[in-house]
Fold this sequence. Notes:
The chain has nine helices and no strands. By secondary structure, the chain is an all-alpha fold. It folds into two domains: 1-54, Homeodomain-like (Arc Repressor Mutant, subunit A), CATH 1.10.10; 60-195, Tetracycline Repressor, domain 2, CATH 1.10.357. α4 packs antiparallel against α5, α5 packs antiparallel against α7 and α7 (126-141) crosses α8. It is globular, with a radius of gyration of 19 Å.
Amino acid sequence: MPYSRRELNKIESRKRILKASRKLFSAQGYEDTMMEEIARRAKVSKATVYNYFPNKESLLIGIVDEVADRVEELLETNLDDCADSLCKLRRVMEEIVEASLQYPSLSRRIAWLHSDQESTLFGSWEQMTALLKRLILAAQGEKLLKPDADANEILDVVMGVYLIALFQWTPLDISKPDLLQSKLTATFDCLMRPYLWPPAI
């Protein structure tokens, strides 16, 4: 069922607010960015910003959700060239890393807050990790990953690839798409090798 014009306007306003917040948080820091500045950058009223996002931490949650939605859309529409779930897992990991490294300092902050039990962002990656685990279980069912391996353990390894890219790689490492792709492929292959089935010789 197509969206009405009013619904499309609401979706577009929300996207503009999130885009403005990403740019401002990255450019001048999370603490130094005011909601009024985000409203000006997004070309909406301050009341509109607060209508969608009651505080700055809710904007961070919105940014995480947007990446998860982007990955869901990728799985639904753009992976026709992937013949199996392991290929899809690799492509989804690439999408998450590439989206996060567009704003690395902001993504690092979100990653830290996700692990902080005192933060409203604690557990905010659940949608994304559930999606990754679903692909891992599917790859195990297809006998591409060890069927008897703990899926949660494999998930930790996959998330390790993400955290290496986010916290360890330098701006030079990610300065060119082909260099980023090469490092990401090598890291994924190295860390996932113990879980491949049949085992690599």
